[in-house]
Every structure is written in C-alpha cells, then in structure tokens.
Amino acid sequence: GGDDAPASGSGEGGALRVAIVAPSASDDLAFSQSMVDSVNALERAVELSVTDGTFIVEDAAAAIRGYAEDGNDVVIAHGTQFGGSLVEIAPDFPDVTFVWGTASDTQGLDNVFAYAPAAGEGGYVNGSIAASLTESGVIGVVGPIEAGDAVAYINGFEAGALAGGASEVNITYTGSFGDVALAAEAAEAHLANKVDVLTGTAQMVVGAVGVAADAGVPWFGTQANQTSLAPDLVVASQVYHWEVVLEEMLALRDSGVIGGQAFEINLANGGLVIEFNDAFELPAGVRDAADAMIEGITNGTVNTGS
Amino acid sequence: MLKAVLGALVPLLAAVVAFAFGAIMLLALGASPLEGLNAMLDGAFGSGSRLAATAVKATPLILVGAGITIAFRTSVINIGGESQIIAGALLSTVVALTLPDLPAFILVPLVLLAGAAGGAVLGAIPGALKAYASVNEILSTIMLNLVMVQFMNFLLRGPLIDPFELEAGTRIPQTQRLSDNAALPTLIDGTRLHIGVPVAIIAAVAAYLILWRTPTGFRLRAVGHSPEAARAAGISVKRNVTLAMALSGSLAGIAGSILVFGSEGQRMVTDGSAAGFTGSAGFNGIVAALFGGLHPLWTIPSAMLFGALLTGATQLQRVLQVPAALAVALNGIVVIFVISSTPVRGWLQRSLADSGLFSRSSNRVEAD
Amino acid sequence: MGPETNILEMRGITKAFPGVIANEGIDLDVRYGEVHTLLGENGAGKSTLVKILFGLYQADEGSILLRGEPIAVGSPSEAIASKIGMIHQHFMLVPTLTVAENVALGTASTRRPFTDLDVVSRRVSEISEEHGLAVDPSVEVRRLAVGERQRVEIIKALYRDAELLVLDEPTAVLTPGEVDDLFVILRRMADAGRGLIFISHKLREVMSLSDRITILRNGKVVGTTTPDETSREELAQMMVGRAVRLTPEKPDMDVGPARLEVESLTIHGDRETVAVNDISFEVRSGEILGIAGVSGNGQRELAEAIAGLRVGEPGGSIRLDGVEVTDKDTRSRRDRGLGFIPEERMRDGAIAEFTVSENMVLVDHASRQFTSRGMLAFDAIRRHSRKLVDDFAVKTPGIETPTSSLSGGNIQKVILARELSASPTVLLACQPTRGVDIGAAEYIHTRLIEQRNLGTATILISEDLDEVMGLADRIAVMYEGEIVAVLPAEGATREGIGLLMAGVVEPTAQTVG
Amino acid sequence: MGDFFTLSVLVATAASAIRLATPYLLASLGETIGQRSGVLNLGVDGVMLLSAFFSYWTVLGTGNLWLAVLVGLVVGLAMGVLYGVITVRLSATQGISGIGIFIFGLGLSDLLFRQLVGTPKPVRRLPNVDVPILSDIPHLGEALFQRNLLTYLAFLLVPATALLLSRTTFGLNIRSVGENPQAADSLGVSVERTRFVAILIGNAMAGLAGAALVLQLGIFQPNLTQGLGFIAVALVYFGAWRPVGVMGGALLYGLVNATVLQWKALGIIPVSGSDLANMAPAVLTILALIVLARRVHAPAALTKPFTRH
Ligand SMILES: Nc1ncnc2c1ncn2[C@@H]1O[C@H](COP(=O)(O)OP(=O)(O)OP(=O)(O)O)[C@@H](O)[C@H]1O
Ligand SMILES: Nc1ncnc2c1ncn2[C@@H]1O[C@H](COP(=O)(O)OP(=O)(O)OP(=O)(O)O)[C@@H](O)[C@H]1O
Ligand SMILES: [Mg+2]
Ligand SMILES: [Mg+2]
C-alpha cells in the first residue's frame, strides 16, 4: 500500500506531516482505505504515517497521542469510537489539528475538525439503479452490525430501491465486521430467496462479492471502489473522497483556524462520488436516470429520506 | 536465592531468543531491528506516562490471570475470560447509567463490584454446568464467549445505545459517555495510571491469600488435586467447582469494568467482535497466568511483560510503519519460546528448597 | 548352582534415588521352575529391583545374567523381547480398551496396518484354557473385576511367551478365593519350567506358594530361606528387624449403646443390579463389627452409603447416634462424629500432591482449632500435624513433605491419624491394611483396638480374614448384597466363615438385627 | 415462516450448512485424533489461518487450486512439527503452547497478507463437483451431492478416522497413549512417537480446514477464521471424542448458522433481533449437551505430558 512512507525526521521541503489512526486495515477496500486514499489524493505535499488495525480504543488513543507528541501537524482519528479519547488528548496539544470522524460535531474542542459522510445519498442512488436491474424484484443487502454509516447507506439503499420499483429489499446483518464466511453464506441465503441484485457494506463483504460474482449477480459497492473484487459484476461504487473536506480543513488551518468545525461529504460537494464500472453494461437509459438522480439529490429536488 | 533468579532468567532468555526472531522479521520488512527494539522499549518504558500505559495495559491481564490461577488450581479450565470481561463491563455500565449522580467514592467501588458480580455470574454458569450437568467447561466457556459478544452487540445497539446516536442517525453501537463520578481516579497527573492498577494488584494478592491461606482455597485446591479424596473428606466438589469458576469470573469481570471506567472514552463501544472491546485480555490473561506458573503473584510481572509487549508494539508500528500484525506474531513467538523453556525452569525450581513465598507452587507448572 | 539351573542372576544391583538408596548391592538368583519370593517392608526396595530387571529403571551398579548370558535391559520392550514378563503393582492396563486390544498392544500384527483382533482373541482363549485364566477377550477392561484384570495381566505376559515372570504384589487387591485361584495358576506355570518372582507382604501366602524367599530390608538382602526352614514369626522378624506380634491383643469390653443403626438399606449398583439388599444391623459403642466377604458382594456400596457418598440413592435408613442421616451429605455425617478410612487410599483417602500436614487437616481444616479470622492458622496446623506424625510413628522427612513421596503404609498412617484424632463416635474402616507391610499393619491394628477401647463403634470392612478374625468382636458375612450371618468372633473358624463367604452354607447362627 | 419450508430454500439451507460445516469438520476430526492421543491443541485457529493464507497466496500466484490444497496441508504439517517438538519433546504445557501457536498464526498470517498481498483480491473458488447418479436425486442430490471435493473429503474422513481409531494398530496405539501412557510404554509402544504422529495428522487436517475455508470463499482477510478453530476444538468435546459425534456437532453448528441466515434473509428474524439470533448456534450447542447429558470422559491422559517415572 501507499502507507509505507518513512515517518521519522521533519517533512521534506516543508511537507505537511499528517498521521492517520484507523480501526481496520489500511487497504481494506472499505472504510480505512478510503481515508488513506483521500490523504494521498491531497494536492499539497504530505508526509503520511498510518497506524491501522486499532479498533481497541486504548491502542488508538496511544497512537493518536504518540503522533501528536512526534510533531505531526494533523492527526486524523478515523473512527467515531476515538472521540472520547480526543476529549482527553486534544487539549494537551493546542497546536495540532485533530481530524475526527465519522462525527457530526467537534465536542466543543477548538482544535478538532469533524467529518461525516451522507452515506444514505449514494445508497439511494445505488438502490434506484439496483431496482432497474432486478427481474425478481427482490434485492439483497449484506450488512455487518446495524450501526454507523452502514445503517445510513443501507437505509438509503432500501429507500432508493423501493422508490425505484423493487418489491422487496431483504437486509441481513451478519453481526460481525470481520466474518467473511458468514457474509458469503448470507449472500447465498439471499440468492436462495430470489434475490438477483446484491449490495453490502464493511470489510467483510469481500466474501459476499465472491458469491455474487460466481452467481453472476450484479453488486453495488460503497466506501471504496470495489470493482477489483468482481470486475464484471460491480455496477457502481459509492466512493468516499474525504479530500474534499480535508482540503477545506487545511485551508482553514493555513488561515489560523485549527479546528472547531464539522464537515459532511455528500454528492453535492463531490465528497461522495458514484463511480461506475464501465465494464458493466447498464441497460439503456439507466445510466442517464442515475445521473439525473444524482443531479436531483445535489440540487435538492430529490429527497433521499435520510 | 541465586537459583530463584536463575529460574526467572530462563524465560527471559527465551524471550531474548524470541526477539532475535523478531529482529529477523523486521529485517525482512526492511526495518532496522535496533530501531525496532528501541521503539518497543521506548513505547513501553520510555517515560513515566508510557510506563503508566504499560501498567494500565497489564491490568486486565493481571486480573484475568489471577482468576485463571484459581480456576486452574481447582482443575477447571476457564477459557471464558472474554465473556466474563464483557459481562462485568455491561453490568457496571448499567450501574453507572442508573446511578450516575452517586459521589465518586461510592460509585467507583460500586461499579467495580458490579463488574465482579457480572463476571461471577458468567463464571458460575459454566461452573455449575460442569458440576451439576457434566457439561465440559472448555466447550461451554468457548460457546459462552460467542454468546456474550452477541449479547453485548444487542445491548449496545439497542437498550443501552447512546440516545444521541439514535437522534443523529449515526447509530454507532456505544453507550453515552458515562458519569465522570464513575471514572477511575488517576493516581499520577499527566499519566494514565489509575486506581485500576492497584486494584488489580490487590486482587492478585487476594487470589494468592484465598488459595493458600484460607479454608476456602484449601478446599478449592483439594478439589483440584483429587475430587474423590475431597469428597470423602466431606468437601463438596460441585459447590467448589462452581465457586472456583465464579471467583475466576469475578476477577475477569472487574477487568471488564476497569476497561470501561479506566478508559479515556469512558464508555462501552463494540465493533461486533469480543477482541474489539477486550483486546483479547480473556486469552492473554491465560497466557500471563500460565507464564507465571499459575501463581497469582508471579502473574503480576508476567502480565507486565505482556503489557509492555502490547504498548511497545503500538510504538513500533507508529515509528517504523510496520504492520501491527508483526507485534502479534512476536507475541506468539514469545509465548512459544518461553513455554518451551519452562521444563528447564521447572527443573531449576524443583532443585530449590521449599522456602520463601513463591516456592509452594512454582515448582508445579502443569496447567491443565 | 550352575547357569543351567538359574534363569536369572542379578549381581550387586545398586540404585539410588535422591535422598534414598533403594537397592544396595543386591544379589538375587531365580531358578527355572521356582517361585522366588521377595519379602520386605514398604520401601524396602522390592519394586525398584524388579523395575530395574524390566528396564523401567537403570541400575547405578551391578549386572544381570539371563539364562547365563549378561544382558542390558534398556527399556521395557527390550525386557519383553528377552521374554521377561511383569505384572506391576499398579495394573498397566488401558481401561477403555478390550481385553484383546490390551493384549495386542505393542505386538506386531499380521495384517498391518490393521490389528487382527480375531487372531489375538483366539490366542487369548487358548491361553485362558491352558492356564485356567477365564476371561472374555471382547470385554472392555474397565468392566472387569480386579481379579479378572489380574488375569488379563498374566495373559499379556504369557501371550508374549514370558519365561521369567515378575509379579509385584499381585494379591494385594485380590479376594481369598481369587488368591487361591491365582496360586494354582502360578504353581502350574512354575511347574512348566518358568521362573517366577513373587512379591507380597502376606506371610500366609508367602509360606504357601514360595519355593525360596529372599528378605530385603532398607535396600539390602537380609537373607534367603525356604518355607520349610522358617516360620511366619521368623519372617516377620527378619523383615522388620524386631519381634512382631501377628495377632493383636484385645481386652474384653462392655459394649455401650448403639451408635450406628442401619435399617433395611437397599442400594442399586452401578450395573442396574441390586448391590445391597435390605440390610439391617447396628454397631455399638466399644465394639468392632467386622464385615467379611468376597469383594463385589456389596461391601463397597455399603461403605459408600454409610459415608454419605451415595446420598439420594439408598432406600432404608441410616442413623448416627440416633439421628437420621440418610439424606445428609458426608460433611454433616462427619460433623456428627463419623470417621471414615476409605478403601482406595491414594484415590479417596489422601491428596497425593498435598503435604502431610495438609492431609492431616483435610477434614477439619475449617474448624475453629485451625482457623483464625478466616485464615488458616498454620501454627496450629503444624503443631497438630507434628504431634500426629509423632503419635502415629509416620515415617516422613517432615510434615511439609508431599504425601505422594511416602510409602503406602505411611500414607495409611496419615489417614488413620487424621481420622482417629477427631475421636470419632463411629469409625468406618475399609481395608485399613491392604498393601501395608507387617510392621505398619501391626501398628494400625493396635490403634484400631485402642479406639474401640475408648468407646468408638467401629465397622471394619476387610477381605483379609485374619484381620477380621483378629480384630472384630462380631463378624457379619456379606454374600450377594445380603448379610447372611452375624457371628460372635469368639469361636468362629476360618473354614466356617469361608464357606459363608462363598455362599455355600445356609445362614445358621444368630442373625442379629 | 412458510417461506422457509419451500423446497428450494430448504435445499439451499442444507447446502449452506454443509459448506459451513466443512472447515469445522476437518479441523475437529484432526483435533479428535490429537486428543485421543492425549494432546490438546488450542492452536487450531492459528494453524488454519496460516494454511488459509498460504493456500490463498498459492492460488493467487498459480491459479492452481489443488496445489493450494497441498500447500495448506503442508503448512499444517509444518505447524504440527513445531507443536510436536514443543509439547511432546519438550513436554511444555499444552494449553498455553496452543494459545501461543494461535497468536503466532494470527499475527503471521496477517503480516504476510499485508506484505505480500495487501488489498484483498478474489481468487478462484473450489468448484462444485456432481457425484454421478446421486446428484440427480431430486433436491437431496442438489443439497448433498453437488458440493466441492474438500467437502466430500471431509465427510469421507469421518468413517476413515473412525476406522483409523478403532481398527488399526496405530489407532490402538493412539487410544492407549491417550488413556494410559504408562501402560502403553510398558508394552513397548512409543508414547512420544505415537503422539507426535497424531499431532502431525491433526495439524495437517487443520491445514486442510484452513484451505477449505479460504478456497470456498475465494478471498482472504486478516483473522479470516474469526475463532472458527476454537469452536472446532469445542466440537470435539461435543462429539465426545468420536468422529461421528464430531460430525454431528459440526453439522448442527453449520445448520443453525445457515438457518439463522436464511431466516434473516426471509425477514423471519427482524433486523432488531439479529444479534440475539446470532447467539443461537452457541446456545443450542450448550443446550444439546445438557439434554444429551452424556457422561463421557475425556481421554484420561489428555493434556498430561508423559515422563517415564
Ligand atoms: N470440610 C469442612 N469441614 C469443616 N468445616 C467446613 C468445611 N467446609 C466448610 N466448612 C465451614 O462451613 C462453613 C461454610 O463454609 P463455606 O460456605 O465457605 O463452604 P462450603 O461451600 O459450604 O463448603 P464445601 O466447599 O465443603 O461445600 C464455614 O464456616 C466453613 O469454614
Ligand atoms: N522414582 C522414584 N523416585 C524417588 N524415590 C523412589 C522412586 N521409586 C522408589 N523410590 C524410593 O525407593 C525406596 C524403595 O521403593 P520401592 O518402591 O522399591 O519399595 P517397595 O519395597 O516396593 O515398597 P512397597 O512394599 O511399599 O511397594 C523407597 O524409599 C521409595 O520412596
Ligand atoms: Mg513396591
Ligand atoms: Mg506396596
């Protein structure tokens, strides 16, 4: 991955020193990877360090504090559960900008920026495209546990699919972010129940995508572009481009405001992007309808209900 | 005395050999072993606050480990540490949610007691199942671990979820931030050292006293060595098997409440797995206990060693940008090497005379 | 005596363990066709010597000649290959395997990789027939009685063509009838030219079976003799090193009130049979009621019921000192004054890993005497243990010694000391001297009688008829779960009781309730 | 609920149960052999993770599924050598050694994955193979006889393991050293060698289990097993150390999991009840044991290192 840059020494040529602390693997094709990719996509020169796989809050807190002590300019705490630790840590490092998400407020800390995705928007778009692809009218969703942006995405997807004419959206929460085998069997269970389009979220869906691919059933991704998992069958992925709000935060920082504001990525600000897989041939008109819907959500004429 | 030191040195030597393997792995990853070792030592002991972090990390291991010694000495294999930690954490969370306004000097002991109670129940269940229904405890504790994870997910997503999460629609499965009155008081400002650390040490000493100084412990060990002879002497095997598991679970339960109320987040949160909350302390505690020769007091330094490995690993990953998995693999190697060296240590210790605090049990390393 | 007459010659065997020299310069010859007995107290070094012969231990010094050839026995398989067979003091059987499987274990099969159990079974049957060792090859060993297991051990040795057979205390666990059967078999094997080494503490057996007897004491040979040249008293004296009283002295006592009353006791056995059938009796203060019987006739179940180890099972009633205890557990019975010496000393009587001192307070550890403020009072416990070790002449390096390193007789003394020091009103003593050497047995007998004289109501369950006849005031004979007769000890004869035990004679004399 | 009792759903549930049961069964059978010889291996999960990774990596590199299976087996064997040296040669405590192996496997497989692969890439999955004739049986054939070869192998290994234990000389040796190693030793059966080989077989089967898991999924992730190996150990106790019982446990576990997933998909279990439903397999396993109330005893020498005196 792109996370192996050396971290010691001061930034070359005045590059901004940024650190990410993330709960799952930084190349999980999902939540954690979305942030690493986003930082790498920043326009300015960045010297990046990553500590990943730290779901345990105490470990993450140690890493966050360590990065602040090491003199990083920006420390990204990429997990809602890290918020409690920031309350303790951020005040000790008034010159460091902490970036925390997904979260919709900064807990009153003035060196913390917060960020959140409007995951339901892309879910709604994916759902409505899915509705136009299903023949049985039944669409399946494989989720981890009913929480966080997984819920937002899945609820948006369900609303979009039903609005688009699907008769039924079956949702399975496997109860685990990590159990690939259960996710795969959950997808199999859907297939046995007339499902002919699938989506899912979180890192364990890689198992479900494999099942979809073998069964020749279209798949919708979210969080990161999942086309590589099933090059013929991934229709589209809602991709998180956190760099949109990160740029804004860094601009504020340059102007002396090092925190205190909350941001959202959505279709309108380009933080959420529906990336289509060109290898998947959509029926005529579907792509146009999808673009129109994105346009509608962007300008507020379509209500996703989320 | 010299021999005692030697006995303790053997596992250390093994640890050194294990680290040599770690060095090779670091080289393979293109990192400098010296820098790696430096980062680990620095992360674990580099400053007062890091030393404190190491002690905090060791705390659940001491508690679970001390509990394990009680169970294993009664010949009950408690692999249910994870479920008992979770039960303790959940019950103490409920107490803090229900009585947030109690003053700290009441609420802190109360949540710790609630933790003990929660863990005790989750220990007593497999204990009683073994005693009264002949259900093997390895099976039941492994299964109960699975059950409690789901129960935690259920509670944190449903009845106990932070109302704000529902409002905001983010639905992160976590409780609201719990009463500050329940937060474990910090002992040294500027460090994470909280009273959970002395509580764990006191608990380990208590486990030692119970096992070797009280009639209850006498009965537990009697049952552990020979249920038949214990029974003929009028000691109830069933009751003591249940009791051992309950005691063992209660210590793990205290670890659970310390994980909640000694944390910076001051709340419970789940990622759907047990390890996400416990940090696998329920398993690592077994390792710490066996490492300490199933002696509650030896469990303390042994847990510190593992605590240091864990905190050092975080620093290792941060400084050298090597995957965290390296530390896990290293951890495994340390266990394998040190345990392979215990026959040597056992031999050394057996040649020790029966003297001193530790001698009574340390010559018996067999665990199960 | 040339090599042609000796199948085995052991020369100058020395073997030391940490702190003890188990064998010191031991010489032993065994002739073809003879039963050569090794006699000695617990810990004299008998087992060590034969374990060296069988390759389980390596001697520090000395040599072994087998059929005149010097051999080095490095492991049991080498011993087996040299046609040495051994029946261990503790059976070397796998309880979950069948008889045939136990026999086949470690032998080459003709149908590898499969084990041809049919061939083994057939051969087992042949051996059974030839030597009168009735046993069913297809039965799992754990279902067999002790005597049958012994036969399996012998069959194992014969299956491997053993020409020199070592039997380490084979009779310790056998009933008198089984002993007689065994001796017939052993004699027949010797007559067929095999050499046999026989180890036992029981002088009556030794006198009847042996061709020659070698006596060991403290790891050294004291002498070799033959039954014709010696007497039981002389053998005892050679073993122990002093004169020994073989029959205990027992003053007359006036019996007091009934302390233990058993009424219509019925127990279903482990194999859905009735193990104890409608038994009633009482034991009075100051008397010893001996219960004689061939093992397996319900004595074990009866003892367990009295001890409270079968609560909930028995029908009928048990009263201690007039108080109903049928539904009470062991602890409350002990609180009411019951003392209990279990039959299987290492399993039920003491905890091997515990120290002598811990075993001394196994029952009473929680009493006010041994606790203070919730903690064990180690000083009091130590003082108590030291006193008991002295009083009961327990041979141990110290009270903090692990009990497992004591000899059988001394472990039994620890149990006896513990149970008697509580001054029981009722004492249930099961096989109190099984496997115990003469010196220790003499001592245990003396203490049991002393206790009786102090007014304890004792119930003595033993398969050793000499013991029952020597100690008991009244003798009850059990046969197939029933008490077929209760006789006064005075005037009872070995032969008479033996017939009752065999179920041959109709119950005649007084049947006391 | 009515939806569940349609043939196609029942067939899918059965198929799913069998798929889920396959890795459990392979690992549990191996562990059964080890435990019957007196060796407890709590490291099954770690062995599975390592072999799963190497199998995955093999397919990724070569595309050859059978080579991948072989690699899984060999990795299992290698871990068996390690475990045998630790527990048999050095007589180290089995419980902790196993946990050490588990942690080692967990960490190393994760590390290797991150270094050698990184982003999860799907690979070919084990194809289903129809058993001639049997697969044509309506419904039943589809559920049982259109599975992958490792599944067939796993179920064939049930009678094979039973036969090994009950009929062969080696099985006799295994049972004797697991019950009474002193007795076996006194008859010249090498306790050390017997246990070592039993460990090798057990670990090789754990290796196969890892390969089966990853090749059924077609993808690897750190901690892919999610504690599967521990459940496999528990199932040995459930099956009372008998291959057929172990199979029953694996099938029960797979079936309950599969049913819960079907019921979720059908909406019979509402989303809000999802976590509680996830408890079902474990709770049912415990309940089954309470009800069956089998007082079976573990091999008497289980976890006890053997020394001659
Ligand atoms: N074997 C014993 N002999 C004498 N007193 C005992 C024994 N066991 C317990 N006691 C005493 O009985 C009381 C109840 O003790 P406690 O509840 O701790 O043990 P218990 O669980 O009832 O005993 P057990 O483990 O024998 O069933 C205490 O005073 C205790 O010291
Ligand atoms: N493996 C051993 N380690 C240490 N000491 C031993 C060992 N085996 C025997 N001894 C000691 O050697 C001495 C002789 O023991 P041995 O078993 O030969 O006696 P024995 O004559 O067979 O006694 P018993 O009649 O009780 O069976 C005893 O003091 C015993 O404690
Ligand atoms: Mg002996
Ligand atoms: Mg003896």
Backbone structural class of chain B: mainly alpha
Hey, roughly how much beta strand do the residues of chain B contain? under 5%
Give the uncertain stretches of chain B in residue-range form: 347-368
Q: What's the count of strands of chain A?
A: 12
At the first level of CATH, the class of the domain at 56-302 in chain B is: Mainly Alpha
Helix content of chain B: over 70%
Task: Name the bound molecules.
Answer: adenosine-5'-triphosphate, magnesium ion
Order of helices and strands of chain A: EHEHEHEEHEHEHEHEEHEEH
CATH names the topology of the domain at 56-302 in chain B as: ABC transporter involved in vitamin B12 uptake, BtuC
Radius of gyration of chain B: 21 Å
Quick one: biggest sheet of chain B?
none
Widest β-sheet, arrangement of strands of chain A: 2-1-3-4-5-11
Mean pLDDT of chain B: 86
Number of helices of chain B: 16
What is the count of DSSP helices of chain A, taking H or I runs of 4+ residues?
Answer: 9
CATH architecture of the domain at 56-302 in chain B: Orthogonal Bundle
> How much is the radius of gyration of chain A in Å?
20 Å
Distance between the termini of chain A: 34 Å
Describe the structure.
- The complex is a heterotetramer of chains A (306), B (368), C (513) and D (309).
- With 306 residues, chain A is α/β, with parallel strands linked by helices.
- Chain A has helices spanning 31-40, 57-69, 83-89, 119-133, 148-163, 180-192, 205-215, 243-254, 286-299; strands spanning 16-21, 46-51, 74-78, 97-101, 112-117, 138-143, 168-173, 197-200, 219-223, 234-240, 262-265, 272-276.
- In chain A, helix 4 (119-133) packs parallel to helix 5 (148-163).
- Chain A is globular and about 55 Å long.
- The model of chain A is unreliable at 1-11 (pLDDT under 50).
- With 368 residues, chain B is an all-alpha fold.
- Chain B has a domain at 56-302: ABC transporter involved in vitamin B12 uptake, BtuC, CATH 1.10.3470.
- Chain B is 74% helix and 0% strand.
- With 513 residues, chain C is of the alpha/beta class.
- The longest helix of chain C has 16 residues, at 176-191.
- Chains in contact: A-B, A-D, B-C, B-D, C-D.
- At the B-D interface, helix 6, helix 13 and helix 15 of B face helix 3, helix 4, helix 10, helix 12 and helix 13 of D.
